[in-house]
Amino acid sequence: MTTVAACANRAGFMAGANLGVLAALTVFAAPLAAQTPVLAPARQTVTLADALRLAQQFQPTVLAAEGQVRAAEARTRAAKGAFLPNLSFSSGGSRSSSEGTSRIDPITGDLISGNQTNQSVQFGVQTGITLFDGFNRSNQLRAARATEAALEANFIDVRFTTALSTTNTFLDALEARQLLSVRQAGVSRAEEQAKVANARLQTGSATRSDSLRSLVTLGTAQLAMLNAQTQLAATEANLGRLIGSNDRVAATEDSSLYNLPATLDTAAIRQDVINRSPRVRNAEAQAEAARASYRASRANYWPTLTASANTSISGSQANDYDLRQNRSIGLNLSWNLFDRFSRNLTVAQSAIALDNAVAQSEDATRQIIATLTQQLATLQTAQTRIAITTISVQAAREDLRVINERYRLGVATIVDVLTSQEALNSAEVEVITARLAVLRARVQIETLVGRNL
Question: At 238, is the secondary structure helix, strand, or coil?
Answer without folding.
Answer: helix
